[in-house]
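Quarterly update from the structural biology core.
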Amino acid sequence: MWKKTRTKKRVTITPQEHNIHKSLRFIFVVAQIFGFFPVQGVLSKTPNSVGFSWMSVRILSAILTCTGGFLVALGHIRHMILTEYDQFEMNGVIFYTCGCLSCIYFIKMATEWPQIILKWQEVDIAMATYGWPRNLNRRIKIVSAVFLLLETAEHFSIQANKLIVAVQCKGSLAKGFEHFTVNMSFPVIFDVIKPFYSPWLGLVFQFVNTRMAFSWTFIDLFIILISCALAMRFGQINYRVRCLKNMKVQSERSWGSVNEDYNRMCQLCALLDDKMSFLILISFFNNFYFIIFQVFGSLNLHKATALEVIYYYISLGLLLLRIVSICLYGSWIHEESKKGVELISSISPEFYNREILRFMQSIKYQAAGLTGKKFFKISRQLVLKIASAVVTYELVVIQFSRNAETKDEPSKNSICSSPADVTDNESSSPCIEPIGVVPGRCMG
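Predicted structure, tokenized:
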């Protein structure tokens, strides 16, 4: 009994010591470096300092990022209209369009975030006696570090490989960088503005590409971290319910207080679901589309080089990690919010009171969890549904590929050539680009 009382006193918190803004500010700072989530006051220790202003450098950075991504997406659409449908061009359209939409929606969310974070602070203050969720801050840091490091390693290894091969193809750094930018990364843009090419302009578009790649990771990471924080709060409520049950507490006041805390968390969860559901929809669409593309690309692995095969499995593994992590962390909220039913059901009937029954009704009829614009709820079953859809698609593609007449052509990524200015020496040089999810081909 003394041990429990001492633990409660030790973990009781104030908003200055622990709050969700302080826990998430690292990822918000990183996001703003890449032009996303332009809220002000991210370095402050309390949510009271968080604000938003249209007249700020953060907004300018976000608008420039969105504009650059929009121009590249238009370039891919123009190329498909003038030539013919190409899957690589469609990948570029999806990649940059989703990046632009996420940028726009994060601007919208930034305008509402000061009110959201203050509402969250009210819940934290009301639940101060629970203490701060154990290991929440450490979990946030570890998950953020893992996702950011994996994204950085994947993106820059692919871009560095392309640049190295381009330099080998052209024989000098200047010509290699131009080939890397103009012909391999952004042919749809420099097709139109090639007379105005400069290394600085090439760096600008590479910067836009890097920001778009980060937007993908930030959406997934944002959903995961918010889910983690909500689920661990519901876990604290379950722990208190377990304590009340084990101690056979019959006080209606004690059970009513827990019920009020549960209702607060459900209201906070509903608010966040309303604000985040479009981002969840973008995340699942983006991840699912590129998983399907990677599965389709597996049919051509026999034409790929060893390095391409390695990159293929790495990128596919990261895609699966993204979507499975979102499903597991997102479903964690729903699972924790429903655990109270099992705990209360095991209470002896003689200890039941009016507040326990009300609490049971609250858990039974309130649906806590995140959704994709109410089209679907994030759950563990969603992983199986996605896997089923991917396997079905793979079987259909295999069947069509067997029936279709295919030519034994080399990989598109295996030749380094530029129709306009290629030489005999250059035409025999290898030009490897992995069959990855980052748009762009090794082409002239």
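Residues 199-246 form the longest helix (48 residues).
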